[in-house]
Design brief:
DNA-binding
DNA sequence: TATACGTGGAT
DNA sequence: TATCCAAGTAT
């Protein structure tokens, strides 16, 4: 079973959300910032931060001129703050090597920090109307169901997943980009992971999963990601202290966030230093990088 | 290919 | 309350 692109595009044109990074006036930079922020982070949390960023840093060189600490503060609690550092580095590269204009070529985009297979193609497609297979978690789920008749996508396989989507893509560039947006929108709003709204689905009639009687997912179990008590949680707490204070802090102020296990806490702090998310200044205090 | 990497809302 | 899950990337 396939997916009819015209049906999808018609549905998208009728029902899509009016997100700011989808407006015609939005620049490639606006699209890139949105794509990085949206990695593993819901639209509702991204939108207000995206607005602030585009207002404050309307072009890559503007972001590049800010310090890493400023950028991390502005990132707030979006999560995975290494994304903010990579976007900052990408902005510097774009400013210096690409005339302050986000590249439209997939391979050029892939060479930038924080931009992988998904983001490079999303920017090429959504900012520049290029024809490229844009494969995110939504698209993988929609294809798994509508095309393969499975309850959900199995483990990601970049080559296979992109080939799957490539086979569905309209030949026309602009329509291919629109179709990709439609596929993602369907996965985000209708063909959702938990309770799919099949009654509202534009491709209900041709969906292989429907025809097969909506079998449950039978692939390998997905690793459940824990958070409470992990290094990720401890790192988050440490960083939260530094985001909240304009001045550098002594180690004692960091120690209080995880008194249970000093060894592990110190290793987390060390890993933050290694990642460049935290800096130790000359007098021994700790701070966000680049501000002191 | 498997794993680490933040955060918070929904169920 | 516990678990799931959200437009992934780097290693």
């Amino acid at each position: 079973m396939s997916i009819d692109s015209e049906t999808m595009i018609d549905w998208f044109d009728r029902t899509h959300r009016d997100l700011p990074w989808r407006r015609p006036a939005c620049t490639g930079w606006g699209v890139l910032v949105s794509e990085i922020m949206l990695q593993q982070t819901p639209v509702a949390r991204v939108q207000p931060i995206w607005e602030e960023w585009l207002e404050r840093w309307p072009v890559p060189s503007a972001l590049a001129a800010a310090s890493q600490g400023e950028v991390l503060r502005a990132w707030g609690k979006l999560g995975y703050p290494r994304r903010a550092l990579r976007l900052h580095a990408a902005a510097a590269a774009i400013a210096e090597q690409h005339g302050d204009v986000v590249p439209s070529n997939v391979d050029t985009l892939l060479a930038l920090p924080g931009i992988g297979a998904y983001t490079a193609r999303a920017v090429a497609a959504f900012a520049y109307g290029k024809r490229a297979p844009v494969v995110d978690t939504n698209v993988r789920r929609v294809v798994a169901r509508a095309v393969h008749g499975a309850g959900d996508a199995g483990p990601a396989s970049n080559t296979r997943d992109m080939a799957d989507v490539e086979a569905l893509l309209p030949v026309d560039e602009a329509r291919a980009a629109r179709f990709s947006a439609a596929l993602m929108e369907l996965g985000a709003l209708v063909c959702t992971a938990r309770s799919p709204r099949c009654a509202d689905c534009p491709i209900y009639d041709t969906c292989a999963w429907q025809r097969a009687g909506r079998p449950a997912y039978d692939g390998p179990a997905k690793p459940t990601q824990k958070f409470a008590g992990t290094d990720r949680q401890i790192r988050g707490k440490l960083l939260d202290v530094l985001r909240d204070t304009p001045e550098p802090v002594w180690k004692a102020s960091l120690d209080v966030v995880w008194p249970q296990d000093a060894g592990r806490r110190d290793r987390c702090l060390a890993s933050l230093l290694t990642d460049g998310l935290v800096e130790q200044i000359a007098d021994g205090r700790f701070a966000l990088p680049g501000e002191h």
